[in-house]
Design goal:
Rossmann fold; 14 strands; 37% helix; globular
């Protein structure tokens, strides 16, 4: 893996009306012709993404969006796509022509302020019109950082970069650990990695790679085995590993082969904590107990791979849950950034580990479920619960384990 995955990059969204210079701004920031620039309003239709290194922040992802004031049937579709970007934006730029700030900008700002997302106002085309005192007073009243630019000439771009760096969210700088915080320096983690039809040829899947890197970053080390070799590997060690982490689909065999005194969990549960909210997912898994035949369940997957064989989200989890409930359940599936607007019809939403998402997007979905009163959990927690080993799988996480014990009584 030679480049930083999208899910680990700071997502910087560029928003505003049509023809205010959003695409020119992206090109100026990246010093490349990333977006098509035209005097015709509405040139940008689908969001345009550009990954790059923004030092000293590191890896970022700029997202250029369609004008929020687009009109007509097609325009509304573009606006809806732009609003989808709100859900994964961690730092927002609202671009306006220097003398303009109205309801569109206010609505964008309020949406991000509600989520605690830092916002910068970019007063572009300042060579043709200067911001009024009324606008400056309004931005100051909102405590909103602003900068004047002329994107087509590169004016103000260096200052904008500095402003972006100063407004990076604290949680991005002090990013969570996948597993390293559970391991004292010098610890050994045993990673169980099944090799099946869906394992990418010649590679490991992203959660496994990121877990290995996190272990090394925290001055520990790991041993990687398939599930069939786990028992032999444990017997060869002079001392037991500090933790065993398995692919969730091998949970039962790995639990049987791992002594009770060794903490055990799954990659998916680690990512439930790393990318989302493990406590919320544990509470959501308890809703499995209330499921009845005929209930609708949404399986939400971040990546868009073509499912083959015994796919975990389409075959195995539905099978385990059907066996647990004792009757047929109705499963619906979404992939990538698609997520239903109306989720109240579902009795439970089960999300994948979200290794390809940034944390903001998954937290946005969790918030949406909370507001709709729909329980949400993730693959790993749901599998552990349906197989009857949830308490064992949560053993490395005292807080989540306490919630499980308290609410499962």
């Amino acid at each position: 893996m030679q480049s930083t995955p999208k899910g680990l990059r700071l997502h910087i969204g560029i928003f505003g009306r049509r023809n205010v210079g959003k695409s020119s701004l992206l090109n100026a920031l990246t010093k490349q012709q990333v977006s098509i620039v035209s005097d015709v309003a509405g040139t940008t239709t689908d969001p345009v993404e550009k990954p790059m290194e923004l030092l000293p922040i590191g890896p970022v992802l700029f997202i250029d969006t369609a004008g929020i004031d687009d009109s007509g049937a097609l325009g509304k579709m573009r606006v809806n796509k732009t609003k989808k970007i709100f859900e994964r934006t961690e730092l927002a730029m609202i671009v306006v022509e220097a003398g303009e700030w109205g309801k569109f900008e206010e609505n964008i700002f309020k949406a991000f302020r509600k989520k605690g997302i830092p916002v910068i106002a970019v007063l572009n085309k300042s060579d043709t019109s200067k911001p009024t005192q009324k606008l400056i007073s309004r931005l100051n009243a909102l405590k909103l950082s602003y900068i004047e630019t002329v994107a087509t000439e590169g004016s103000g771009i260096d200052e904008l970069r500095d402003m972006l760096i100063k407004n990076v969210p604290e949680e991005f700088i002090s990013e969570k650990s996948v597993v390293g915080d559970l391991l004292p320096p010098g610890s050994l983690a045993m990673l169980v990695v099944p090799i099946d039809l869906e394992a990418p040829k010649g590679r490991l899947i992203l959660p496994q790679v990121q877990t290995i890197r996190d272990i090394l970053d925290n001055d520990s080390y790991c041993m990687v085995v398939k599930e069939r070799e786990l028992r032999d590997a444990l017997e060869r060690l002079k001392r037991p590993p500090n933790i065993v982490v398995t692919d969730s689909q091998a949970f039962l065999k790995v639990a049987a082969d791992t002594p009770d005194n060794i903490p055990l969990t799954s990659f998916s549960i680690l990512f439930a904590r790393f990318k989302g909210d493990l406590d919320t997912f544990v509470e959501g898994a308890l809703a499995i107990e209330k499921l009845k035949p005929g209930d609708k369940i949404l399986m939400a997957e971040a990546c868009t791979h073509h499912p083959i064989g015994e796919d975990i989200g389409r075959i195995k989890i539905p099978r385990w849950l059907t066996q647990y409930v004792g009757g047929k359940l109705n499963f619906e599936h979404t992939q990538g950034c698609d997520f239903p607007d109306d989720i109240k019809k579902y009795k439970l939403i089960i999300h994948c580990g979200s290794c390809t998402f940034n944390r903001r997007l998954l937290l946005s979905r969790i918030l949406k479920c909370r507001e709709a009163g729909v329980p949400i959990t993730n693959y790993g927690v749901a599998i552990a619960y349906s197989l009857g080993i949830c308490e064992r799988a949560l053993s490395p996480f005292p807080g989540a384990l306490e919630i499980y014990r308290k609410k499962s009584k």
